[in-house]
Write a structure and sequence with these properties.
Layout lengths: L9 E5 L3 H13 L3 E5 L2 H10 L4 E5 L7 H10 L8 E5 L4 H9 L4 E4 L4 H36 L8 H16 L3 H13 L9 H4 L7 H7 L2 H9 L9 H6 L20 H15 L11 H13 L5 H11 L14
Parallel strand pairs: 1-2, 1-3, 3-4, 4-5
């Protein structure tokens, strides 16, 4: 068994045959991996919940949860779906392979297992997992940075999280694709991350900003886009960050876009952002009742600023019994 400092990764081995478990575990530990062995699919699911598993080797035919169902369960949970899964099987038909792919399997190994093929596939998938872990860590850093900016102003506490939930809820009502809902969830958190470049005395100023201060403030969407641009997983988030302060009549910033030039996801975030700002406490006014807030936004729709159709859909959404609620926060 390798010592903890030299472990290359933790591999879960699930097989109802003890001889198979011992064979796979022996091959893996000899190469510097830590092997966790279980005898069925249910115990495999317990293991991925309780241990930091880097890769799972699942026999297809096991009592209880099969390799297929265990793989599907692993790939269905946000906290485990990035764990690579290799299905180990003696089944060779195309239908069996398609079934495995539909369950989310990343690769297959045929029995009897070839040592060199096993180790090559494990190395390849663990390399890929390192890259996805780095992406996750980068996202975590960005989220933490965005929330630290929010924390500078007690009146914006919880704003990002609420905006994220409200925007996704509206996107779901509109039937947007999953990738756009994910983009809105992320954008709700990081939409104002560019404010890291705005001096704190401007960011927390209680009175009106001067012309020079506004010039600085209006650059934060551009800076935010630049900060997040290196992450390819944020491809659909970038337009929301850059354009959530545009207005339909072209009077917004930073690009003066008009009408449908403004991406739909940015327009969704605008509506939820304004609503959350109006329905939360501010230093200069009390929180508005939702009905009063919607009346204010409707007047701004008449001025040609916001999307009236989206406002109507959002108002209907807020009227539903189960709905993410606004709290203490402010407009970004």
């Amino acid at each position: 068994m390798p010592d903890s400092a030299s472990i290359k990764g933790t591999v879960l081995v699930a097989d109802d045959m003890e001889a198979n478990r011992e064979l796979l575990a022996g091959l893996l530990t000899a190469e510097g991996y830590r092997a966790i062995c279980v005898e069925d699919g249910n115990r495999a699911l317990e293991a991925v919940r309780q241990e930091a598993v880097d890769l799972a080797l699942l026999d297809v035919r096991m009592p209880g949860a099969t390799g297929y169902s265990a793989c599907l369960a692993i790939k269905s949970q946000p906290e485990t779906r990035l764990i690579p899964v290799i299905l180990v099987t003696s089944l060779t038909s195309v239908d069996d392979r398609i079934h495995g792919i539909m369950c989310g399997a990343d690769d297959f190994l045929s029995k009897p297992v070839n040592k060199h093929e096993l180790l090559a596939r494990v190395r390849s998938l663990l390399r890929l997992k390192e890259f996805t872990d780095e992406l996750e860590n980068a996202e975590t850093v960005l989220f933490s940075l965005a929330l630290s900016i929010e924390a500078k102003d007690t009146y914006t506490e919880g704003h990002c999280e609420r905006l994220s939930k409200l925007s996704v809820a509206l996107a779901e009502r509109l039937g947007l694709p999953d990738e756009e809902k994910v983009a809105l969830r992320r954008a709700g958190i990081v939409h104002d991350i560019g404010k890291i470049s705005v001096p704190e005395h401007i960011l927390t100023k209680r009175g009106p900003l001067t012309d020079d201060e506004w010039k600085i403030m209006k650059q934060h969407p551009v800076v935010g886009e630049r900060i997040c641009a290196p992450l390819k997983s944020f491809r659909l988030v970038l337009p929301v960050i850059r354009h959530h302060h545009e207005k339909l009549d072209g009077s917004g910033y930073p690009d003066g876009l008009k009408g449908e030039e403004i991406p739909l996801t940015a327009r969704i975030l605008q509506i939820t952002d304004i609503y959350d700002a109006l329905t939360t406490e501010r230093p200069y006014r009390n929180a508005l009742h939702p009905q009063h807030a919607f009346a204010v936004i409707r007047e701004e729709v008449k001025r040609g600023w916001w999307d009236g159709y989206l406002l109507g859909e959002f108002e209907a959404l807020v009227a539903e019994p189960v709905m993410p609620q606004a709290g203490t926060g402010g407009q970004g």
